[in-house]
Structure formats: structure tokens, C-alpha cells
Design goal:
The protein starts with a strand and ends with a strand. The longest helix is centred in the last third of the chain and has 34 residues. It is of the alpha/beta class. Helix 1 packs parallel to helix 2. The protein has an 8-stranded mixed sheet, with helices on both faces. The chain is built from 10 helices and 8 strands. The structure holds uridine-5'-diphosphate (UDP) and magnesium ion. Magnesium ion binds next to loops. It holds the Pfam family Glycos_transf_2.
């Protein structure tokens, strides 16, 4: 039997007033039950609720829960996004193990039992992987699929269908928080930490209350961030394309010259052959500059060493 350990559960919440009155009691009862289980060495737990700058009653609800059930509440000064809200919660987690879970309970809480068992068997990381996605829309399922495919293509080491439902030991958490970059891409960094890792499969449920807080804009920004913080593949692709175009145009110039000298000696106005390549190359150059700009922008943000989140209150 493993020696007793404590658990912190980090829950990012953004405008979740419709979910919290259900989620918190359910999770609280579930975790309390785990503590009393004979087959687990869990000694105690704490919920860390992070309000990611909600504009509804989320923070009032969190404050009430901290009084009722002794959870910890963290209010961020504005909306920093899911990933940073989670990091804010993780930065105050000091238990032996930490689990992160969304506040809509789309992820099956029963998988936490398997995660704890994996930890007791020596795993430092237990990653929740979606076996199925409930009634997620066709759009959501396919954008997710495309996203994981793209990440793989770009050489980022991610675990397909693993989002942010996972267990980390305090050791793994320390290693994670030692990464000081501002754009911390958790789904890429965590699998790359090494350590003994278990994969826990579960069926993802549909969202019962409220709308998804991941707008298309937030999803796109997560995808771009994932690619650019993990791989220079787009840059290499651009460089290769540039060289190829350059060599081809040299060949073309050579060919035109030969034709002019040895085949037809009449001068052709050649408007199309001048203007079209110019336009084409111009477009290509702008495209390349856009991609390079993405990286430059990233460097710009990194060198500033801005904090990833600012905590307003702790209760
Ligand atoms: N969330 C957050 N900040 C945001 C967006 C989302 O803290 O800017 C939280 C949200 O409250 C939820 C979790 O992140 O607990 C996942 O969001 P959601 O369920 O909307 O994403 P989906 O399951 O649709 O991918
Ligand atoms: Mg959700």
C-alpha cells in the first residue's frame, strides 16, 4: 500500500455560474468518498477554484463555496484564458498530487480513481485521453482532429485526444513550473517532461449547462501557439520553398537567355512573363514574412517576461 498523500484539484472557471452549483458539490462528495476508500491511500483533498475574470456570478459562487466547504478560490484580474487560469491554480497547488479538470465536468471524474491508482503504482503523470467525445458538435470533433494531426505533422510531441484533464505529482509540477516562458503550451510541455507516465482512457460527456467558453478565436490562438511554441517546421518549410523558387527562377532565366540567343532573335514585349512572376513572388514573400513575423512576435513577447497571470485575491 502506498503511503498517504494529499490531493489538490485545480478547476478553471470562466462564466460558469450555470455549472458551478452542480459541479462543486458533485466533485466535493466524490473526492470525500475517495478519501474514505480502503483501496486508495488518499489522505485529504482541496479544490482550487480559479475565476478567470468572469463577468457573471462565478466569483460570488466561488467565495460562497470557500466558506461552505473550505475550498481555495483564486480570482484573476481579467480573462487570461483557460491555459493561464490553470497555471494560476497550479502555482498555488502544494499537495503531493494535483489533478486539473474543467468546471463543466465533461471529463469523467471516475477516471480520477484510475489516475490516483496509477500514481500509487509510481506514475508521476497520468494523462486523461478521450476515447469518445459525447455529443460534441461535428465542427468541434473535426477541428480537434485536424488540430492534433497538424501538431503531429509539425513535430510537437503531443498525446492525441489528451487535453487538460490530468494528474501530476508535485515533482512533475515543479518541473513544469520551472519553464518560465510566457507562452507555456501545456499539452506539449507536459508529455515532454519525461517521468513515468500513464494514459487513462475515458469517455467525454457533452456539456450539460452553458455554452462552450472556447470560442473559435480561442481555439485558433491555442493551435497557432501550439505550433509556433513547439516547432520551427513552418520556418523550415518557408526556407525550403524560398530556395526552390529561387533555383527555379534561375533555371527559367537561363532558359529564356538561351532561347533569346539561339532560337528566336525577335524581341517579345513579354508583359505577362514580367508582371505575373512579380505578383506571384510578391505574394509569396508576404506569406513568408507573415510566418516569420509569427515567430518574431513570439520572441517579442518572451523577452518581456510578462507574468502569465496576476492573482487578484486568495480566499
Ligand atoms: N475556461 C477558462 N477561461 C477561458 C475559457 C475557458 O478558464 O477563457 C475554462 C472553462 O470555464 C472550462 C474550461 O476552461 O472550465 C474548458 O472550457 P470549455 O468547457 O468551454 O471548453 P471545451 O470543453 O468546449 O473545449
Ligand atoms: Mg467543456
Amino acid at each position: 500500500m502506498a503511503s498517504p498523500y494529499s490531493l489538490d484539484v485545480v478547476i478553471p472557471c470562466y462564466n460558469e455560474e450555470e455549472n458551478l452549483p452542480h459541479t462543486i458539490p458533485v466533485l466535493n462528495d466524490f473526492l470525500a468518498n475517495l478519501v474514505s476508500r480502503e483501496d486508495l491511500a488518499l489522505a485529504g483533498f482541496r479544490m482550487i477554484l480559479v475565476d478567470d475574470g468572469s463577468s457573471d456570478r462565478t466569483w460570488q459562487q466561488i467565495e460562497d463555496f470557500t466558506k461552505e466547504i473550505g475550498a481555495t478560490g483564486l480570482k484573476l484580474s481579467r480573462n487570461y484564458g483557460h491555459q493561464n487560469a490553470m497555471l494560476a491554480g497550479l502555482s498555488v497547488a502544494d499537495a503531493d498530487v494535483v489533478v486539473t479538470i474543467d468546471s463543466d465536468l465533461q471529463d469523467d471524474i471516475n477516471a480520477i480513481v484510475e489516475m490516483l491508482k496509477a500514481h500509487e503504482a509510481g506514475a508521476e503523470l497520468a494523462l486523461g485521453v478521450r476515447r469518445s467525445r459525447g455529443r460534441d458538435s461535428f465542427f468541434k470533433k473535426n477541428t480537434a482532429k485536424g488540430y492534433y494531426g497538424l501538431m503531429k505533422l509539425m513535430g510537437a510531441q503531443i498525446v492525441p485526444d489528451h487535453a487538460d484533464f490530468r494528474l501530476m505529482s508535485q515533482k512533475a509540477l515543479k518541473a513544469l513550473l520551472a519553464h518560465e516562458e510566457t507562452n507555456l503550451f501545456l499539452r506539449g510541455i507536459i508529455p515532454s517532461l519525461g517521468f513515468k507516465t500513464e494514459v487513462i482512457r475515458y469517455d467525454r460527456q457533452s456539456r450539460e449547462h452553458g455554452e462552450t467558453k472556447y470560442t473559435l478565436r480561442k481555439m485558433l490562438s491555442l493551435a497557432v501557439n501550439g505550433v509556433t511554441s513547439f516547432s520551427a517546421a513552418p520556418l523550415r518549410f518557408v526556407a525550403g520553398l524560398g530556395i526552390t523558387v529561387f533555383l527555379l527562377s534561375m533555371l527559367l532565366a537561363f532558359w529564356f537567355l538561351m532561347e533569346r540567343l539561339f532560337v528566336s532573335k525577335s524581341t517579345v514585349p513579354g508583359w505577362a512573363s514580367t508582371v505575373l512572376p512579380m505578383l506571384w513572388l510578391g505574394g509569396l514573400q508576404i506569406f513568408c514574412m507573415g510566418i516569420i513575423g509569427e515567430y518574431v512576435g513570439k520572441i517579442y513577447l518572451e523577452v518581456k517576461r510578462r507574468p502569465r497571470f496576476i492573482v487578484d485575491k486568495v480566499v
